[in-house]
Amino acid sequence: MTFYQKLEQHHKKLAKLDHLASICSWDQAAMMPEGGNAARSEAMAELAVISHEMATAPYLAEWFELAHRESLSQEEKASLTEMKRVWRNANVLPADLVEEQSLACSTCEHAWRTQRGNNDWQGFSENLKKVVELTRREAKIRSEATGLSPYDALLDQYEPGMTSAKLDALFADVKTWLPELITQIREKQTHDEVMQPVGPFPIDEQKALSLDIMQKLGFDFHHGRLDVSMHPFCGGVPTDVRITTRYDEADFTSALMGVIHETGHARYEQGLPEKWAGLPVGTARSMGIHESQSLFFEMQLSRSENFIDILAPLAAETFNRIDDPALTPENLTLLNTRVAPGYIRVDADEVTYPAHVILRYEIERDLIEGRIEVADIPELWDRKMHEYLGLNTKGNFTDGCMQDIHWPMGSFGYFPSYTLGAMYAAQFMAAMRKEMNVENLIRERNFQPIFNWLDRHVWKRASLVNTDKLLIESTGEALNAQHLKDHLISRYLG
Amino acid sequence: MTFYQKLEQHHKKLAKLDHLASICSWDQAAMMPEGGNAARSEAMAELAVISHEMATAPYLAEWFELAHRESLSQEEKASLTEMKRVWRNANVLPADLVEEQSLACSTCEHAWRTQRGNNDWQGFSENLKKVVELTRREAKIRSEATGLSPYDALLDQYEPGMTSAKLDALFADVKTWLPELITQIREKQTHDEVMQPVGPFPIDEQKALSLDIMQKLGFDFHHGRLDVSMHPFCGGVPTDVRITTRYDEADFTSALMGVIHETGHARYEQGLPEKWAGLPVGTARSMGIHESQSLFFEMQLSRSENFIDILAPLAAETFNRIDDPALTPENLTLLNTRVAPGYIRVDADEVTYPAHVILRYEIERDLIEGRIEVADIPELWDRKMHEYLGLNTKGNFTDGCMQDIHWPMGSFGYFPSYTLGAMYAAQFMAAMRKEMNVENLIRERNFQPIFNWLDRHVWKRASLVNTDKLLIESTGEALNAQHLKDHLISRYLG
User: Fold this and answer.
1) Which one of A278, A286, A445, B481 has the fewest CB atoms closer than 10 angstroms to its CB?
2) Residue A404: partners with Cβ closer than 8 Å, 6 or more residues away
3) Per DSSP, what are the bridge partners of residue A243?
4) What percent of chain A is helix, strand and coil (3-state, nearest 5)?
């Protein structure tokens, strides 16, 4: 057995443990009764320790060195690169830092669940300071190992190859046109008469509609299922993808759009190449590319007029309301393309969403680089919310800088993925349009060519090439934010 | 840290891995889409290997030796004995056999789910041969390690202390009176006019009724849940017990009685002593004692006339059929105490049930001892079914020798536990009756004293004493099959 093969075997074992952790974590969110939590958390922590020990086994350094000298195919070389990336990420942190972080984050996140509701910035910031301090130590260590700046070293874990220099340029451009675009769209929409559909929409009917749409969007129920959890997510493993949603009897669109979003994530996972199953090179390219698939399904595809023409009668039929004027294609289109600046990121429309991300990016970048401190966050948040979205958040920490779980969890460097995803998605759609008449295909309910394009250019590429190359090979160019701008102008001002 | 403490810590780690395996195994039966099976089986086999490696770590032999010399409390001594029993059981098998078995059983069981419906004995027997071959290897190794016969060495894992010599004697006795008893009961019941309730009984109403009864029987929903699987079982962990059932729209009693049965298992698990959580001494005493709890709930308690007086109006109300003459207490009592030889063990009444078990015991004992082969099973099955229950099963593998999940799963030596359980349950009830008026308590819907008795004498005893001692301490005598015979005569001929 070659050393490359030994490394493959090793990583396939790790993937098997990840498989069980994934399913148990899904269970924890979607199935587990509350009294099971303490023992479950301990059991999962034990598995994490075993996985970490395996992932950092001392003999791996030599195996990597010897594997590099072996004769490998192009794909095997990519595979080796990805294995090494995973190894380096796991290996670089000292065990006591990992443990301290785990404790600080779990303390901070747990307290945050109460503090957020109490608007208790003072209490929260005490815990967050500890998390930031440890994250800075982590970033410094990762920075030394990679040669990247501290923040970039964190970013690199979620979006390999992305840097704050690139993001600064991208987001500086967005900031030149986004506020004006929002104003123009708001003006254009002033006289739209949008009806809010009035519930109740029974949950079993919402579920039936969700399953129907998932089927139409090609979700493979032989390899996945839909359930309910407090915070919707896409989990499980490629052969068994678990997506969740949360139903609200008063409003069916939020669960439905959520399901479509998670279906995009799911199809990426279900479409990953079997040949590379269980290896890092066979996993999703990055968080941004993952988000591009969910946003392609949700924003590019399903909020298009032609798709809503399909969705609306399905909804009307499922809820037995064929005469409900709120469920016409026209009204559902108005509803699903309504633009309104708001406090909450997860509730934001696709036009104002980038503003939420840029704000968070600018704050967390400076925080990790040591240019600002935790105490500076509220003022910066207020200033930027006012500047980007014209909203006043002063004193409202609950719906301001305390709204997201990311920072309390210690996930710094993740936020940019959301807007990168929106940009990638728009760029994929623009490229697809050069090859086929997408609008006609949707009208004809012939989605297969669209899915085939994504499968060929994104899903089956997994991590076989880096993000730049994936974009160039599929769209003819590197990341170009103009496509998102064009999409927004065309949909909202066209 | 003493060596005893080190052993405790080690076993608590093992229990954490078992926790995850339990949940993933429940998921596999109750949630997983079929396409997820191959990868899941491999992932679980990997975890089994890791657990096995941990359970057989070379330093344990020395730890056990040193722990034996330490000063231990009575309970710690029992704990050490049980840890050592688990260790011996695990240690004796080579890792490659364990992995081969895990894979072969998982393959056989998965294929069985389809093959059984197709009456495909040929296809099934090919997989089963492999399972039997590996089980014989296992039995031989265990036999050499314990000095027991190969079959007894398997039996000992489920029912420590039990032997085929004891079973042969017990079952020989049962065979002297059971056929005649069945005939007498059948004659007595000839003129009973039993009405079969006519469906449909909507599944959501059956589920509501099941949950209601579980609540009344003290199931703790903060630490467990009810779901659906093809083959009902009780899984999960004591802090999160997962029971399953299977609903039939045409017949609500089978799911309901199944739920009551599993609730008995669940209460044992939920009632195990927290102080010993994660240690072998804190787990259920044996499969037979486990079954005694499910059968106590199902047979001793819930099929009693007084309990059916509670059950019947609840069912009538849930199904909105208060005037249905098939749902009166009188008719439901007749229905739930109806004795009729049938093909299916899990559908059998408590009188004919032991015949099903004795048949399986005799076949699997001879199979493991090498006196017969897989190919001989159908003919033996047909002959014994004819002899014990007067039924013809020729060519009907689906409802014959392919009906049970045990053999495909590689669980040989398990079947006797069912009838031992019925015997223990009858013995517990007889002892309880000496301390309280059980029938009055049920009439008054005051189940708590009954549960308290079980909690004190069985649940909280876990594996702190062996089965003989548990029986003697709780009932004043060792296993005595006369109590089952008395129970059957009293209920069915009284």
Assistant:
1) A445
2) A345, A360
3) A226, A234
4) 70, 5, 30
All domains of chain A, ordered by start, with CATH? 3-148 (no CATH), 203-337+417-493 (1.10.1370.30)
CA distance B369 to B363: 10
CB count within 10 Å of CB B406 equals 16
CA of A255 vs chain B CAs: smallest distance (Å): 21
How would DSSP label each residue in A291-336? HHHHHIIIIIIITSHHHHHHHHHHHHHHTT-TT-GGGSHHHHHHHH
CA distances from B210 to A30, A231, A351, B332, B437 (A): 21, 29, 49, 16, 27
pLDDT tens profile A275-286:
999 999 999 999
Chain A contact present for B223, CB below 8 A: yes
**Minimal Cα distance from A32: which residue of B?**
B240
Phi–psi pair at A234, nearest 5 degrees: -115, 115
pLDDT at A472: 98
Nearest neighbour of B43 by CB, restricted to A20, A221, A222: A20
A33 interfaces chain B, CB cutoff of 8 Å: yes
Contact B223 A33 (CB under 8 A): yes
Residue type, B292: S
Q: Which residue has the tokens 């993740």?
A: A414
In the set A76, A82, A138, A262, the catalytic residue is A262
User: Can you tell me the distance from the alpha carbon of A452 to that of A218, in angstroms, rounded to the nearest whole number?
Assistant: 11
Which tokens go with A434? 């050069």
In the predicted model, residues of chain A with pLDDT beneath 70 are none
The Cβ of residue B188 has, within 10 Å, a number of other Cβ atoms equal to 12
Contact B239/A39, CB-based, under 8 Å?
yes
Residue located via tokens 């399901």: A259
